Structure formats: structure tokens, C-alpha cells
């Protein structure tokens, strides 16, 4: 285990409108505002997205199992944003519900808001953490540099 102590910086309150790309929007805000590290929460609706529900097996490198959101769902989730090769990179896990069906996973592509989706981004100051390519997993993972 590795850890660093940081402190909260600026807080951004975001409203995504119907059809907005949520993942791209979070990265754009962090790029435009020069946020190096952050955590965020979301609540609202999503109508499209591709998410991973785990690897097929525990072997390395993991082979992701993909699922699609193809209609409106209630959504709630939490994520982090750290830089990868100088650009903000989101890692988000959420739950997506419609009627009596609830799905959960790591949202990675095609994230489209439904009606309205709210986010609160909290900048994290005084940490030296980035995302770096991990050769064993083939994934871009969090790394503490300091």
C-alpha cells in the first residue's frame, strides 16, 4: 500500500445537460482549470455508455468484460482524476438503475447524460500522484511519485 496526505482545493459544481459526454466533460474541466488531481461524485441520469464489469479471469493481463447502457438509467458514482502523460484521466465506478434492474461497473466510453447529471469535483492539493502504464496488467494505474 502507498499513500500521501493532501488537502482539498477548489470545488467545482457541474451540471451536465442531456446528451453531454460526462467523461470528456470531467477531463475538459480539469484540463481548462489546470487540476492535477481530484475526486468527484455524480448523481442523475445517463442514457448511453460502455462500462466494464470485471475481468473474465484473475489472470494477467486482465481481459475486460464489457456491457452497454442503451437507454435512460438513474446513475450514481464516484471517481478520481489524475494526470496520465500530462492529460487528465478519469477512473469512475458507478451504479446504473432502470426499473428493478441495477448494473454496476467502471464507465469507460460513450458516457452520455440523460436530462441532467450533476457532479461535484474536489481538487486534491499537495499530492504527487499520476497514472502510469503498468506492464503486468497492460492498464494505466495510479502511481505515487513522492
Notable characteristics:
146 residues, mainly beta, 60s Ribosomal Protein L30, Chain: A, 6-stranded antiparallel β-sheet, two-stranded antiparallel sheet, 8 strands, 66% strand
Account of the 3D structure:
With 146 residues, this protein is mainly beta. It has a single domain (7-144), classed as 60s Ribosomal Protein L30, Chain: A, CATH 3.30.1330. Helices cover 8% and strands 66% of the residues. It contains one helix and eight strands, in the order βαβββββββ. Strands 1, 2, 3, 4, 5 and 6 form a six-stranded antiparallel beta sheet that branches. Strands 7-8 form a two-stranded antiparallel sheet. It starts with 6 loop residues before the first strand and ends with a strand.
Helix content: under 10%
* Oligomer state of the chains in this structure: single chain
The biggest beta sheet is recorded as: 6 strands, antiparallel
Mean pLDDT: 97
Query: What is the tally of helical segments?
Result: 1
Number of strands: 8
> Termini separation (Å)?
14 Å
Cα gyration radius (Å): 16 Å
* Overall form: globular
Q: State the fourth-level CATH superfamily.
A: Hypothetical protein, similar to alpha- acetolactate decarboxylase, domain 2
Structural class: mainly beta
CATH architecture classification name: 2-Layer Sandwich
Number of separate structural domains: 1
Would you identify the regions where 5 or more consecutive residues have pLDDT less than 50?
none
CATH class: Alpha Beta
In the CATH scheme, what's the topology name?
A: 60s Ribosomal Protein L30, Chain: A
The arrangement of helices and strands along the chain is EHEEEEEEE
Assess the beta-strand content as a share of residues: over 45%
Amino acid at each position: 500500500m502507498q499513500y500521501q496526505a493532501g488537502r482539498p482545493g477548489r470545488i467545482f459544481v457541474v451540471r451536465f445537460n442531456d446528451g453531454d459526454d460526462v467523461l470528456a466533460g470531467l477531463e475538459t474541466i480539469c484540463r481548462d482549470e489546470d487540476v492535477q488531481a481530484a475526486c468527484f461524485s455524480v448523481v442523475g441520469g445517463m442514457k448511453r455508455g460502455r462500462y466494464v464489469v470485471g475481468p473474465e479471469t484473475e489472470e494477467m493481463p486482465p481481459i475486460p468484460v464489457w456491457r452497454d447502457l442503451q437507454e435512460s438509467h438513474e446513475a450514481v458514482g464516484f471517481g478520481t482524476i489524475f494526470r496520465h502523460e500530462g492529460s487528465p484521466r478519469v477512473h469512475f465506478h458507478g451504479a446504473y438503475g432502470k426499473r428493478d434492474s441495477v448494473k454496476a461497473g467502471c464507465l469507460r466510453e460513450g458516457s452520455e447524460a440523460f436530462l441532467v447529471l450533476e457532479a461535484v469535483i474536489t481538487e486534491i492539493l499537495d499530492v504527487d500522484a499520476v497514472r502510469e502504464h503498468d506492464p503486468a496488467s497492460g492498464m494505466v494505474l495510479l502511481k505515487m511519485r513522492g
